[in-house]
Automatic annotation (TrEMBL):
Protein name: ABC-2 type transport system ATP-binding protein
Organism: Anaerocolumna aminovalerica
SUPFAM superfamilies, A to Z: P-loop containing nucleoside triphosphate hydrolases (SSF52540)
PROSITE patterns, sorted: ABC_TRANSPORTER_2 (PS50893)
Domain ABC transporter: 3-225
Origin superkingdom: Bacteria
Record has Transferase as a keyword: no
One term of GO molecular function: ATP binding
CDD domains, sorted: ABC_DR_subfamily_A
Gene3D superfamilies to which the protein is assigned, alphabetical: P-loop containing nucleotide triphosphate hydrolases (3.40.50.300)
Keywords: ATP-binding, Nucleotide-binding, Transport
Keyword Nucleotide-binding: yes
One Pfam family here: ABC_tran
């Protein structure tokens, strides 16, 4: 296993966003982190990315505390835009290269092409769907070991979603792990190995997607509806 968390808690003043979760994530698998708005998915990803400190509990990546070493190996794509309005698509690449040693410029060019973006486009002129694609391209151009993508399909039209899902799948290798949050469970169901259902900061259900389907006689989409109805 690569990511291990035990009794992880995050409180924002009186609000408990993550309420004592424990689970492990195995290398080389694709995980869906599922749950409605406010269930704690983003908070968990931010803790694993080293952007938010847990209130209590432990979390390690390959035995290391979350910190500078793990940040070099974990690529996190937040729901918020990370680039400034004045930047062009090319500037975003340079900005990323300055921050991350594992950033592969050639791969970025390929991904920008694939997403039908142009290096000269100004980020402030991009539609929300194109800005979402830019975030994905920049994140997947890193040669990370663990990619955590928070709502990568948000704002992306139904035609482009397949392309994004295929691009995400290309990143999946034996030594690469993916953790993807999404409300669009249909799209994720096709590609995931494991599902983690989060409810009110707790794990409501988790397991290998195929085991869950067999055990409950339901698809992941149906389980989602049942858990959150
Ligand atoms: N900085 C913060 N200050 C106060 N409360 C916060 C903060 N960040 C998150 N919360 C609260 O913690 C809870 C979990 O939020 P979080 O963003 O982790 O959920 P989520 O499952 O990612 O939801 P969404 O799908 O809407 O992004 C929510 O009730 C939210 O209001």
């Amino acid at each position: 296993m690569v990511l291990q968390c035990k009794d992880l808690v995050k409180k924002y003043y009186s609000k408990t966003a993550v309420n004592g979760i424990s689970f492990d994530i195995d290398q080389g698998k694709i995980y869906a982190l599922l749950g409605p708005n406010g269930s704690g998915k983003t908070t968990f990803m931010k803790i694993a990315a080293g952007l938010v400190k847990p209130t209590s509990g432990t979390i390690t990546y390959k035995g290391n505390q979350i910190g500078p070493v793990t940040k070099e190996r974990i690529a996190y794509m937040s729901t918020e835009p990370f680039f400034y309005n004045y930047m062009t698509v090319a500037d975003v690449g340079k900005y990323y290269k300055d921050f991350f040693e594992d950033f592969d410029e050639k791969r970025y060019e390929e991904l920008i092409d694939r997403m039908e973006l142009n290096m000269k486009d100004k980020s402030k002129t991009l539609s929300s769907g194109l800005a979402a694609k830019l975030k994905i391209a920049a994140t997947l151009a890193r040669k990370a070991e663990l990619y955590m993508l928070d709502e990568p399909l948000n704002g992306i039209d139904i035609i482009a979603r397949d392309k994004i899902v295929t691009t995400i799948l290309e990143a999946a290798k034996d030594d690469v792990t993916l953790l993807i949050s999404s409300h669009l469970v249909d799209e994720l169901e096709k590609i995931i190995d494991n599902a983690i259902f989060v409810k009110n900061g707790n794990i409501a259900l988790m397991g290998e997607a195929e085991d869950l389907r067999v055990k409950h006689g339901k698809s992941i989409v149906e389980l989602y509806k049942e858990i959150y109805a």
